[in-house]
Amino acid sequence: MECGQRCWFQTFLPKQVLLVFAKEDNQSNGFCWACEKAGYRCSIARTPESALECFLDKHHEIIIIDHRNSRYFDAETLCRSIRTTKPSENTVIIGVVRRHADREESSLLPFLSAGFTRRYVENSNIMACYNELIQLEFGEVQAQFKLRACNSIFTALEKSQEATEITSEDHVIQYVNPAFEAVMGYQKGELIGKELTEAERICERVQAESQTDIQTCRHKDKRKGSLDVRSTTSRGSDGSSQRRHSSMARIHSMTIEAPITKVINIINAAQESSPMPVAEALDRVLEILRTTELYSPQLGTKDEDPHTNDLVGGLMTDGLRRLSGNEYLLSAKQTHQVPGSLISPISLNDIPPRIAQAMENEQDWDFNIFELEAATHKRPLVYLGLKLFARFRICEFLGCSESTLRSWLQQTLDPIDEVAALIAATVHDVDHPGRTNSFLCNAGSELAILYNDTAVLESHHAALAFQITTRDDKCNIFKNMERNEYRTLRQAIIDMVLATEMTKHFEHVNKFVNSINKPLAALEENGNRILIKRMLIKCADVSNPCRSLEQCIEWAGRISEEYFAQTDDEKRQGLPVVMPVFDRNTCSIPKSQISFIDYFIMDMFDAWDAFADLPNLMQHLDNNFKYWKGLDDKKLRTLRAPPE
């Protein structure tokens, strides 16, 4: 009962309070002085890292986190991090929020779901802070102490070799410990909820069958009709131990064992011989490993940055809710008129001089795709595709003629698709409707139904590309390949196209960082090559912020217009508006670009630069970020500053 004694003794010690404020202000000072007035021990942390370290060292009863501004740290993410630790089970966590008299009251559910116990509306008055602390001490903190004491008692009972059961005043069994289970030969679930007399009959039957000496006696205290059972031998605990070791042996002897199972078994084995602090830390590791999304961070709401919030909601979810009676149908594929003077080339030698000139520096990062788009009347990919595929000798690998490749490029491509050198990049946006996955799911579109609201557009791009390629022999670039080679190539193309889906963005980036960007990484291994290819197409897919400034501005305008059109469509159809900030009348394009670069681009390209060494891309990224930041600092919402 040492743990229980410690909990009882702690109720008489001064309470410990941890204040997590990025910088000193009236509110943090108010709580600091209130702690001194109440006789509490007060610690102050300025960063999430120091807060977590301080808490794990001192185990504070109360933590107060500044939730008013996400510029310095994400309060909800910090709260979740603290809640994953074992000592936080009985800690009271308070979030300080802003006072908004003119704003409608919002739901507290996301706040509580993050792990906060309650909120405190900012008030730096010392007495207000003092009263809050006193209410916490005699309310939530005291309740947590009682709960901790109960848990300590049950922990002791679970480890006790004395068979023990607890009943209600109506003689119904409420609890039995493992030793009781071992003696009775029944599982806890078979005993809890049954009346005591029934348990006594079970006990008598076990006595007769096992001839084990069991002493049964009635309590002489105030509790009515309670039964204590104590084994006079150690056979009960031995039996329990044997069952436990037998179960673990079955896990260890599995013929087909998943890697995660091996990891968990190794950690379990290490725990048995580890001191308590290490064992508790390994418990936390096991909790994390048992989650389903090991590489995807928990995304908290960023109330202070609606642009980031909307980008996360619009790009990383497959629809917020479903509405009956609304259906979005992909419009028939529009046919674009190509001037008669612009005839598709038979080979590279037939490309018109003005187009050839526009493609002279196609291998350079600063190649201007918009000039080629104008020269080809919005059909740049056929020409650029032929040149790039020739440079990489794609026809030779596939065993197809250049005319077949040209036919495939002509059949597959749509004006909304953008250029890339390899097949996956060529088709990764084919037949894109200019709407996000969230829009299609909310609208109940045919594609969303077909692909079960999961990676809707990416699945459509990959599937349609192969449908178009294989249905017409004259443009089937795969027809001369051996079956095994084709299957391998097809799987690689599909995997890369699906990697562009944004819901898996952080998973792909984190796997790349953990597997590739480390010393002695085996780059030739198939698994690592897959990660590199995924990262390659992801970086290419969203590389606009790494282009030269003029191209970056042009792309920002185009994607913003696409999101504006989606918002207009959502309002017109009565659908949920998944990215409200992208309203053409109010949106700040610089803010949206800053949020996108901060949240999605910066870390990914830092990792890719560490692998591929691309200083010119990173310089463009830095310049473009400064450009958008400069416009935002001037309170401008447009692509460019007005002429002076």
Automatic annotation (TrEMBL):
Which amino acids does the record list as binding Zn(2+) 2?
D429
Give the required cofactors: a divalent metal cation
Q: In which pathway does it act?
A: Purine metabolism; 3',5'-cyclic AMP degradation; AMP from 3',5'-cyclic AMP: step 1/1
What keywords tag this UniProt record? cAMP, Hydrolase, Metal-binding
> Where is region (Disordered) located?
213-247
Report residues binding Zn(2+) 1: H428, D429, D541
Biased composition, class Low complexity, residue ranges: 230-240
Q: What is this protein called?
A: Phosphodiesterase
- What is the species listed in this Swiss-Prot or TrEMBL entry? Ophiophagus hannah
Q: What is the lineage of its organism?
A: Eukaryota, Metazoa, Chordata, Craniata, Vertebrata
| Gene assigned in the entry | Pde8a
